[in-house]
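User: Can you predict the 3D structure for this chain?
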Amino acid sequence: MTTHAASTGPLRIGLVGAGPWARMTHAPALAAHPGAVLSGIWGRRPEAADALAGAHETQAYTGEAGIEALLADSDAVAFAVPPDIQAPLAVRAAEAGCHLLLDKPVATTVAGAREVADAAERARVASVVFCTLRFAGGTAGWIAEQAATGGWFTARAQWIGALFAPGASNEFAASPWRREKGGLWDVGPHALSVLIPVLGDVTQVVAARGPADATHLLLRHTSGASSTVTLALDAPQGAVGTEVEFRGERGVTALPEGGGDALGAFRTAMDALSDGARTGTAHPCDARFGLRLTEVLAQAEAQLGRA
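Assistant: Here is the predicted structure, written as structure tokens:
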């Protein structure tokens, strides 16, 4: 399959989504990227698509005809929509020859995530899943350093938010899929995206419920190390925090605080997509990795459903 992307010149990248995440991160990062041209913005709400496209001097697209037109006008597509809306649109984008800059999780069903990964491989398009810490300036290098160090015995990760706490003013609290799926699916990919490259793939999952939407995971990895993970979006304000800690032969190391801003991380993810489109080399955070994240989270969810 021949993709849209030319070997030289800026990558024309369309944005699917016009909500808060697209407005705060995707659109400004794409519009300012020196190696890209923001070819247009598609939104489910015409007024949101019009406003965001107007702010970045590009074309707004809506509806079924709009998504087809955006794909025809783009070499690549970035996604900022709920995961189970993202997945079928990403399949269509790949089939149209567009490279994929996906949000996490790729989908909340294994079948949906597998369709995306398979479509990207069939079409031979590049794919990158935007797991923020894998691209942020203050954390990407630290993760690579811990992976190279090895000898880890165990790890602990906590991603605890208060998105729905009384008095909280966070635009993402209005997201129906986050309220339905909770911390397991929203911040679970972040935890796994740090643990897996350091400790190896997950070979065993044990899941248990905590208060509110809190989920506790006990994981075994191919290296033989174990890890524990606590995930929540609906915690009290005083409980909020993000921590990752590895313990092993060379001591203890913790995820650096203030690792980097989302805009900078997204620009780096865009660089990775451009490199993949140019070279044909798969990125470690590609759609196949996104599928693996969904498989682990779905396994945990299934256990919780039986509890």
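The longest strand covers residues 152-160. Residues 287-306 form the longest helix (20 residues).
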